[in-house]
Amino acid sequence: QVHVVESGGDSVQAGESLRLTCTYSGSHFADYTMAWFRQAPGKEREGVSQISGSSLTSDYAPSVKGRFVISRDNAKNTVYLQMSNLKPEDTAMYFCAAGTSYYFALNAGNFQNWGQGTQVTVAS
Q1: Do 108 and 77 touch, CB atoms closer than 8 A?
Q2: Quick check: 10 and 2 in contact, CB under 8 A?
Q3: Distances (CA, A) of 114 to 12, 20, 49, 64
Q4: Are the CB atoms for 60 and 48 separated by under 8 Å?
Q5: Nearest to residue 71, comparing CAs of 53, 47, 55, 92?
Q6: What SS3 string covers 83-110?
Q7: What residues contact residue 9 under an 8 Å CB cut-off, 6+ apart?
Q8: SS3 of residue 52 by DSSP
Q9: d(Cα 9, Cα 110) in Å, to the nearest integer?
Q10: Cα 79 off chain centre by
Q11: Are 96 and 6 in contact (CB under 8 A)?
């Protein structure tokens, strides 16, 4: 059974950086596409970034491209989201998700396993 747990959320000032960590438990981590989603109060959940099992392919939402970097360490069953130049509009609950296939559309429906989320708050 697959479980993912997020950590690293915090309250920061605009312009600062933060790294989120997602720890995966289960088998065959390298077979899973991993992704980060976020949801702000009153808004729909949106895809932030995803990375293929081999790390050869990754994708970003236009709003975070150039500021966020997703990476994974298959030896540690861990995926990271390095966030730089944070903006108040990045404030949200961030969720890690695992899926069995890589789709070019970063849709929540493509991911079967979800964590509980970690809160990121960016003050202006």
Answers
A1: no
A2: no
A3: 25, 15, 14, 21
A4: yes
A5: 55
A6: ECCCCHHHCEEEEEEEECCCCCCCCHHH
A7: 18, 20, 93, 94, 117, 118, 119, 120
A8: coil
A9: 24
A10: 8
A11: yes
Contacts of range 99-103, beta carbons closer than 8 Å, 24 or more positions apart: 99/32, 99/33, 99/34, 99/35, 100/31, 100/32, 100/33, 101/33, 102/33, 102/50, 102/52, 102/53, 102/57, 103/33
pLDDT tens, N- to C-terminus, the chain (124 residues): 899 999 999 999 999 999 999 999 998 999 999 999 999 999 999 999 999 999 999 999 999 999 999 999 999 999 999 999 999 999 999 999 999 988 888 999 999 999 999 999 999 9
**Closest by alpha carbon to 83, among 20, 37, 32, 38?**
20
